[in-house]
Structures are given as C-alpha cells and as structure tokens.
Amino acid sequence: MKILPTLNVQNGVVVPMVGNAVVPGDVLALVGYLRDKGCHRLALVDVDAARGHGHNRELLARAMHKFHVGRSKVCIQVGGGIRSSDQAQFFMDHGAAWLSVGTILHRSPAMVEQLLARFHEQLTASVDARGGEVLASGWSGPIGQKPADAGRRIGQFGFKRLLFMDIPMASSAGPACAAAPDFVTARALASSSRLPLFMGGSIQSPEHLTQAREVAGLQGVAVDALLLRDNPAFSASIILPGC
User: Is residue 182 within 8 Å of residue 134, measured between CB atoms?
Assistant: First the structure.
C-alpha cells in the first residue's frame, strides 16, 4: 500500500484536508519534516487555484525543490487548478512526477484530451465524492453523476491512475472527519475505471488503513500531512515506513 502524505495549501499555509481541528502548518517546514522522516512520496494541492481564487504556484515549486534536494528517487504529485498545458509544464519543470486534474474532467473534455496527449504518463484523474455522489469543483454540490459512471468515463479517457477524494458527511455522532471511509464508492471507481486507485480524505487512522488494504484495486492512500505532524505514533506506525 503506497502512502501519499498530502499538503493542502491555501493562502500560503497548509490547511486540514477535511476540516480536522488542527493548527495550520508552514509549507516548507512540513515538507522538511516529511523529508527528514524518510518519505519519498508527496502530494501538493493548491486549494486556492482549485477554487479559482489566486494560486500558490511559486510556493509549491519551492516545496518540490526542497523535497528533491540530494535525492534521485522521489514521487511528487501536484494538483489544484491545473487547466492548461503551460500550468502542467510549470510543475513538471519543478520536479512533479504526477499531475492531478479534476475540474476540467467535467468542464472541458477538449482540454483533458490536450493534456493527455502531452502528459499521458503523468496524469492522475481526481474525483471528489460525498455519500456516493460525485461533487463539483469546490465541493459546491453533486453534479448528478454516479461514481461508476465517472470511473468508466475516466477509464475511456486513458488516464494512468485515479484519485478518489472521499469527502466525509457530517453526522450527529461527531464531526465529518470521524465518518467511516466510503469504501463502497472506492470499489465502484476501481471496478468501473479499471485503473490503479488511490483514496484520500477520510483515511485518518490505523484502522482505516487496515481496511483500505482489503479493497481490491486500491493501491495507495493520501493522508493529511498535518495528521502526521501532530500524531507521531500514527506517522511512525503507519505512514512513514510506507512513504
């Protein structure tokens, strides 16, 4: 099971993936922490660019350079607001190995084709879903598409891998982040797309990772880097040995 420690960057700082009650983090300091712990995989998400309100592009470039220094084998995925070949090339030039795209899957199929023609090996399709419903950009609401349909469409495009961001639903039993991972949707996406699947958002405990290992087609999980920073036992026993 591959582990992708994930930094969601908004207004220049690392923010929680799905509303965890933790202190925001310094981007470069957190990248250095993961690097010093031996991680060789990293995911960076530009939240501002994804929502269409500015970007953190230069900061992400500095973070990638910091993670690469002195090492030849690292894998960095960058996502959030990549909607043109020039934006994709910028991140490739600064050390990205994978590029995650989501919004344009629904809004601009023509641009998807252009990106696939140029960055086929690097492209990851990203699907956000809550309660079995695929969500629009910024989680503003469902787009009326079921996960199995989204998976089939992504498989037909010819992507190399699929990232499922499981956005937990709030409940009377506690905050949204306490919800169980939606492995039903994960299985539907893996089966319909026939692509290697990664899953993030709701993977927040050792138990969740144990359950994830039993899901056919699920090859890796994206885990909030802030959780790793603030829970040393969690990071030491689950994440860092597998990064």
Answer: no
